[in-house]
């Protein structure tokens, strides 16, 4: 079976999602910084994440664009998506006293439950991408 078209589709979806997430954060940096300051974690973490998150997301995009680094990019995508999914899942399960969303653009408008499902989708396609890339070695 030729896995190449499947990998291309997965990479395109992930590149679009990560680029959109990073760019929407950077274009509304003041709002993103303010939203991070209201999260359930300590404020000093938010001050770090305001730059680490969009740079990491753009880094994943860069890794996905080159065949030699696609597998590393897929693992990075899976790791970051898993962390985001667990965090959003905690909000859906009402584990936090407050539930502010620091998500940019469209993701911030989805609501926690739909956002959780979208995150699960992107986490799963990252896993599928890893499996396909590993099997294609």
Automatic annotation (TrEMBL):
Keyword entries, A-Z: Membrane, Transmembrane, Transmembrane helix
Membrane topology listed for this record: Multi-pass membrane protein
InterPro entries noted in UniProt: Methylamine_util_MauE
Transmembrane segments: 6-27, 48-66, 72-96, 116-133
A single Gene Ontology CC term: membrane
GO biological process, one term: methylamine metabolic process
Principal location listed in the UniProt entry: membrane
Location(s) in or outside the cell: Membrane
Pfam families from the UniProt entry: MauE
Start and end residues of each Methylamine utilisation protein MauE domain: 7-131
Coiled coil segments of this chain: none
Protein name (record): Methylamine utilisation protein MauE
